[in-house]
Every structure is written in structure tokens, then in C-alpha cells.
Amino acid sequence: MIKRRTKIKEILLITHLLILQLACYGQDLKFFNQRPKKNLFVELGGNGGLLSLNHEKIHLISFKLMLVYKIGLGCTQDYSFKSPENYFIPLPGNLTLCFGKRRVLFELGLGATVFLKVNDPVYEFSFYPIIGYRFQPLKANKLFLKATISLPQNLGSSNFSISNSEIIFVPIGISIGKSF
User: What is the Cα–Cα distance from 6 to 12, expressed in whole angstroms?
Assistant: First the structure.
């Protein structure tokens, strides 16, 4: 009878400790879920051409992992800086995972950009991996910063144009914006 009471006490103690642990973990997730779910930012260089306006939607998977969708609208030109003959409207889209504990996150994913030629029914497509580093605020209406590297497979030997094309593609992007 005494052994049975001891076992019941041990089971109750373990159950109680598990419930306390889950309650503490739930409080951490509740705090984490207050993080902003959207970003609106301007990117200089990167996968949107020379300059782009982008919108991101963030899905919180866990305390240390986020899934990010990005879509944007940019502007770029052909490789001739002095007298460009062609202008392009890039439409970048990305799917990335962000790893990290609080504000500073490492970003890894895939992206694609469609380059629409202005005044001509021609488009070009580029697909690439993305590696980045971001400063994601914990509260809404705060400053958002990000630096990324995008290296498309069809990047030309000059590293600033897509091969068999005259489109300027700057592989390094710097972003600044607002979280909400």
C-alpha cells in the first residue's frame, strides 16, 4: 500500500512539473506572437533590380523559426548606365525561413523575379537562392533592416547582369522599412 502511494505521488509530481513547463513555454509563445506580422520596405539592389518596394508577410512557426513570403515591384534598366535604351519592371517573389531568438535573424530561402520590359511584350525570368541577415523588431511600427545576397544561376560573368540579357541584377540588397 505504501509503495502504491509513493508511485501515485511520483506520477502526480511529474504531471505537475510537466504542466508547469508547458505553462511557461506557452507564456513565451504568447510574448513571441505579439511580434509584427508584416513588413513594408524599400530595397536598394537585390532581387528587385536597382530599387524596389516590397511587402512581406510573416508566419510564426515556433519561437525560433518564421516563414516569410515577399512580393515586390521594382525598377531597373539595361547595362548601359550613360544612355540606357531599355527599362524593366522587376516583380520579385521570395519564400524564406528565418532562424533566430529575438530581433536578429538569419534568413535562408528561394526567390524568383520576372523582369517585364517596358513598351515591349518581352519578359525574362530569374530563379535564385537567398541568404540574408535581418533585424526584425519585436513591436509594431518600428524600424526593419535587412541585408541579403541573391545569386541566380544565370548571373553573367560581370556579376551585374543576367547572362544572355542586358538587365542589371545587383546580387546584394540592402532593405529598410517599417514593421506593422
Answer: 10
- 26 and 105 assigned to the same domain: no
pTM of the model: 0.76
**pLDDT tens digits for range 108-136:** 999 999 999 888 888 888 889 999 999 99
Per-residue pLDDT tens digits for 150-178: 988 766 555 455 666 778 888 899 999 99
The amino acid sitting at 70 is: K
All three cell numbers of 84: 540606357
Helix (H, G, I), strand (E, B) or coil at 136: coil
What domain range is 93 assigned to?
36-179
Say if residue 76 is in the same domain as residue 148: yes
Sign of CA dihedral 104, 106, 109, 114: positive
| CA atoms of 85 and 139, how far apart (whole Å) | 44
